């Protein structure tokens, strides 16, 4: 029974990661067509994210109303705090991309892995084995080699990047913490946070987008083409949001960051296949190194889990032995072996 449960859990884990990778890569490809100048030039990223969470909130509402999922109580102040952190992450990322070079933007995204590790150590006293730390370094180097090109830094861009990295890391850690604290599933938590994020992003998004690119969404020409891609983007975002909460709830924010860079590799490959993007030897070597790092990381995490399980098993056996010894002492009086008499 235990082995069957473990196999089922492993299949569910693979399914969660698969959903996240496929939906995330699909979302990036759809947004590339929607937002690029050669596509439909929909340059309103923050407002689009508001659309994403609005559709996600609607799906959550329908699910709760139909009885498919239960609605558990989470304090309003926690939802507001989470939404502030999450929206700061989205805005910070958009500002960082606007103010920094692509190279520095990629470096800031890579820095999330060690930042998440440090924050989990500070907030939850979490420790990592040497193998896990080495695997993280390999992944960071690999993804850095295949994505980082020009690196230009300015004061405003650096501040925005720092805010984006810290808020994104804190957001992902908070997702796992809230699920454990309130014993709430990933979808139930998402259905709680999505309406608050949708309302705030749809309210502030147009102003943020106007600041970022000087264009107003009111003046955009909504033809059938961009509308179809906006609907496609929102549909993929629902699966992406659900799978993100699911993965962080099942694993950790660090694992989500490390294995999440598989999406970076997939995006580079699909960009080469679908959009004729250049793929150099440097990119290929970096991707190979990143994949090797991810494999080593997965092995190291499983090895660490096996060690912890062995320690717990040994501890439980020792406690059982102590209990049996105590019971033996209470039921069977000690005998003096030499005299053959019972000791009072």
Automatic annotation (TrEMBL):
Residues 25-298 form the Sugar phosphate transporter domain. The chain crosses the membrane at residues 39-62, 74-97, 134-151, 227-246, 258-275, 281-300. It comes from the Eukaryota. Signal peptide: none annotated. The keyword Membrane applies. SUPFAM superfamilies: Multidrug resistance efflux transporter EmrE. Keywords: Membrane, Transmembrane, Transmembrane helix. One of its GO terms (cellular component) is membrane. It is a multi-pass membrane protein. This is Nucleotide-sugar transporter family protein. It comes from Rhynchospora pubera. The lineage of its organism: Eukaryota, Viridiplantae, Streptophyta, Embryophyta, Tracheophyta.
């Amino acid at each position: 029974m235990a082995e069957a449960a473990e196999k089922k859990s492993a299949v569910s884990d693979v399914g969660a990661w698969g959903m996240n990778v496929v939906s995330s890569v699909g979302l990036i490809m759809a947004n590339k067509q929607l937002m690029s100048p050669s596509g439909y030039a929909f340059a309103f990223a923050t407002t689009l994210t508001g659309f994403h969470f609005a559709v996600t909130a609607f799906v959550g509402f329908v699910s709760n109303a139909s009885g498919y999922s239960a609605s558990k109580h989470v304090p309003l102040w926690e939802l507001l705090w989470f939404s502030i952190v999450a929206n700061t992450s989205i805005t910070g990322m958009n500002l960082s991309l606007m103010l920094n070079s692509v190279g520095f933007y990629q470096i800031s995204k890579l820095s999330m892995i060690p930042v998440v590790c440090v924050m989990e150590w500070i907030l939850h006293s979490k420790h990592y084995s040497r193998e896990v730390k080495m695997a993280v370094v390999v992944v960071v180097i690999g993804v850095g080699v295949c994505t980082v090109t020009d690196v230009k830094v300015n004061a405003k861009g650096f501040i925005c990047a720092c805010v984006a990295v810290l808020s994104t890391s804190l957001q992902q850690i908070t997702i796992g913490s809230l699920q454990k604290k309130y014993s709430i599933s990933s979808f139930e938590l998402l259905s709680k946070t999505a309406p608050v994020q949708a309302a705030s992003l749809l309210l502030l998004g147009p102003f943020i987008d106007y600041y970022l690119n000087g264009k107003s969404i009111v003046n955009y020409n909504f033809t059938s083409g961009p509308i179809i891609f906006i609907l496609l983007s929102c549909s993929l975002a629902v699966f992406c949001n659900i799978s993100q909460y699911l993965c962080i709830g099942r694993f950790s924010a660090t694992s989500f960051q490390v294995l999440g860079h598989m999406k970076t590799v997939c995006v580079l490959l699909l960009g080469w296949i679908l959009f004729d993007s250049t793929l150099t030897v440097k990119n290929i070597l970096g991707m190979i190194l990143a994949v090797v790092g991810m494999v080593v990381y997965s092995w190291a995490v499983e090895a660490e889990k096996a060690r912890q399980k062995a320690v717990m098993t040994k501890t439980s056996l020792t406690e059982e032995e102590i209990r049996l010894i105590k019971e033996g002492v209470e039921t069977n009086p000690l005998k003096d072996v030499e005299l053959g008499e019972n000791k009072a």
